[in-house]
Specification:
CATH architecture: Beta Barrel
Number of domains: 1
Strand order of the largest sheet: 1-2-3-4-5-6-7-8-10-11-12-13
Shape: globular
Helix content: under 10%
CATH superfamily: monomeric porin ompg
Number of strands: 13
Strand content: over 45%
CATH class: Mainly Beta
Order of helices and strands: HEEEEEEEEEEEEHE
Largest sheet: 12 strands, antiparallel, barrel
CATH topology: Porin
Radius of gyration: 18 Å
């Protein structure tokens, strides 16, 4: 049932992939979404989140891609530390193929570096792009060892306040097909992240921002956190910048 719902979501987003112009590079969530309008292969580096979170937290999310408008290869890094504890430490390797002007199909591998438990690998398949309502979306389905499954859905909307200033609300949902108490994840919806950032575009390649970030464990994951004496929800300030090369 969980696998079927994941595939339905990805197929639905694929159907929504419509034609239209590509966004300016500085507003893209992934470098694989960039379009040069030519056939030559180019390298692009995007740091979408490079930030401090609260007193003892930080986040880095970015990717390096190489290829043309249709096919690309990319390496992505996702790192999150909250209250001095590492929550995510991921390295991705993916192949990307454009299926429209605003959407890309991706397939590859995600490796999770774990400090307190065994590291693990996931096969990843999904879709990233922009809906007709200018909401940037990622939906990626993962299959791990012994048939373990997961789904990550992310969305962000860039709301223009002025020509240079924008407000960017964002959400992330993490689902798992099974309980894993050792890693603190529960079956179904396990993790929720919400945030909003006020971004000032100095140039298309550099945009500092400030905002607030909220994270919460849900369901069985929350129960596991309570058993360990940990908070299930946390709100922190963020201060950082977006970079594009």
């Amino acid at each position: 049932m969980f696998k079927s719902l994941c595939l339905i979501l990805i197929i639905t987003l694929s159907i929504l992939a419509g034609s239209g112009y590509a966004q300016e590079e500085g507003h893209l969530h992934h470098s694989i979404q960039s379009r040069t309008g030519g056939e030559e292969s180019v390298a692009k580096l995007s740091l979408d989140y490079f930030e401090l979170r609260g007193d003892h937290g930080a986040a880095i999310e970015g990717d390096l891609s190489y290829g043309g408008d249709i096919n690309k290869v990319a390496v992505e890094v996702v790192f999150e530390r909250t209250a001095g504890q590492i929550e995510k430490n991921e390295l991705w390797g993916v192949l990307s193929r454009a299926i429209s002007a605003k959407w890309n199909f991706i397939a590859g591998i995600r490796h999770d570096f774990q400090l307190e438990s065994t590291s693990r690998n996931w096969a990843a398949i999904g879709i990233v792009g922009e809906t007709p309502y200018s909401l940037e979306m990622d939906a990626v389905f993962f299959i791990g060892k012994s048939g373990s499954t997961a789904l990550r859905v992310e969305g962000e909307y860039d709301l223009k306040v002025t020509k240079k200033l924008s407000l960017a609300p964002r959400f992330e949902l993490n689902f798992f097909g099974q309980n894993d108490e050792a890693r603190g994840s529960g079956s179904g919806l396990s993790e929720l992240e919400l945030g909003v950032r006020l971004i000032y575009e100095v140039t298309q390649k550099f945009s500092p921002y400030a905002g607030v970030h909220y994270s919460r464990e849900i369901g069985n994951a929350a129960d596991f956190a309570r058993e360990e004496g940990e908070n299930v929800g946390l709100t922190v300030w963020v201060l950082g910048a977006r970079l594009w090369f």
